[in-house]
Design a protein that fits this description.
The chain is an alpha+beta fold. It has five helices and eleven strands, in the order E-E-E-E-E-E-E-E-E-H-H-H-E-H-E-H. It folds into two domains: 73 residues, no CATH class; 100 residues, 2-Layer Sandwich (Transcription Regulator spoIIAA).
Length: 222
């Protein structure tokens, strides 16, 4: 909202989008949406939006990388949704029967069980599901796994300084690894509950960066 032009800067994985091609996007006259059609070769790409207020990640991007929002194109098109779920007969436990174990994805699998040299992500957490299953729980609540902003002096964050509501924290792994975690938990009859922060965001997030003024910004109201 409130911008006069948007450029898409895009490059293949490994290159910085700011050094790649820039394409002028088009505004839908009936909404605040900007769009563009590109003919891209199968590959993984990272991209940024250049707005009146500078470069931002895609606020609705589902995968963030080192230099920008990320997506992959395969022979059949976008591969974001090509994960093949195995636990299709999973039944969610009744709310009054939940036995919940809350944990921090970035520390639990590595710190407690020595996997990954003290660090942990979705893959390491999947590896310790047998232990959690043996405790008799039927739900795992993960502290925020959305892409977060600042970390403390230790280099860690509890995840409550959200950058993006649609993208996962890159240091934890890929969307496919998160889906595999959920799928594996469901195979054991365990629910995955995600702790989400709705009442605040980090000021490094694109929803704020694209319009850093609480007056006209429709996403930040007190």
């Amino acid at each position: 909202p409130e911008v006069t032009s948007v450029l898409l800067q895009i490059a293949t994985l490994g290159e910085n989008p700011t050094s790649g091609d820039a394409f002028l996007m088009f505004k839908d006259p009936s909404s605040e949406n900007w769009w563009i059609n590109l003919d891209l070769e199968p590959s993984t790409y990272e991209y940024l939006y250049q707005t009146d207020n500078g470069l931002i990640y895609d606020p609705w991007g589902r995968w963030n990388g080192e230099h920008g929002s990320r997506f992959t194109i395969g022979p059949e098109g976008l591969t974001a949704d090509d994960y093949v779920w195995q636990s299709n007969d999973y039944v969610r436990p009744p709310l009054n029967r939940l036995i919940i174990y809350e944990l921090h994805t970035g520390e639990f699998g590595g710190g407690f069980f020595g996997l990954g040299g003290g660090e942990s992500g979705f893959a390491e957490l999947t590896a310790v599901l047998p232990h959690l299953d043996s405790l008799g729980i039927n739900a795992i609540e993960v502290m925020p796994v959305n892409d977060f902003g600042n970390v403390g002096a230790s280099g860690h964050s509890w995840g409550y300084d959200i950058n993006s509501y649609f993208a996962l924290e890159p240091s934890y792994g890929t969307p496919r690894e998160f889906k595999a975690l959920v799928d594996s938990a469901h195979a054991r009859g365990m629910a995955i509950i995600v702790d989400v922060v709705f009442n605040h965001m980090n000021d490094t997030g694109p929803l704020w960066q694209m319009l850093p003024d609480p007056g006209p910004n429709p996403y930040f109201k007190s």
